[in-house]
Amino acid sequence: MKGLSISTSLVAALGTTILFKFLDFFHFIKWNPIGYTKNFAVLKGSNVYVKWIILFLIIWGICFLLYYVCLLFAKIPVSITSIALGLLIAFTLEWVILDANSFEKTIKKLSIPFICIVIIAVRFVMESAIFHSKENPLGK
User: Fold this and answer.
1) Secondary structure element (H or E) that encloses residue 137, with its range
2) Is 28 exposed, middle or buried (0-12, 13-18, 19+ CB in 10 A)?
3) Res. 139: pLDDT tops 60
4) Each residue of 90-136: pLDDT tens digit?
5) For every residue of 32-96, which 3-state class applies, written as one string?
6) Residue 9 pLDDT greater than 90, yes or no
7) What are the CA-CA distances from residue 69 to residues 44, 56, 65, 79 (Å)?
8) Helix or strand holding residue 30 (H, E)
9) What local confidence, expressed as pLDDT, does residue 1 receive?
10) Contact between 15 and 59 (Cβ < 8 Å)
């Protein structure tokens, strides 16, 4: 089961990182995905590819944790849970990234493509986790 969770989260993180680069390249989002490096003095002068690799590793860790959290929702239909969890994660990320004071300001600056990518990634991880758990339960 560990190998499946690592490979599933790897594919989800790779796809999400590539799609974030796509969103950044075509300016579908008003913020930079690797803009977090401005806060860290160590990464300020590093190469752009290193910043993207670090972002990939962070997303990989989040997807790995999400894989096991999704096993808790195995009894609820995946379509409902993935949309709710994906929207919650996307809204929270946009609120933190945009640093908006109010919820109304966050809603005005939301990026629909970003929300769609997060929901698709959550759906992929959740479907894979539940499928793998039914094929190979943790108890065996």
Assistant:
1) none
2) middle
3) no
4) 998 888 887 767 778 778 888 899 999 999 999 999 999 998 888 76
5) CCCHHHHCCCCCCCCCHHHHHHHHHHHHHHHHHHHHHHHHHHCCCCHHHHHHHHHHHHHHHHHHH
6) yes
7) 33, 20, 6, 16
8) none
9) 55
10) no
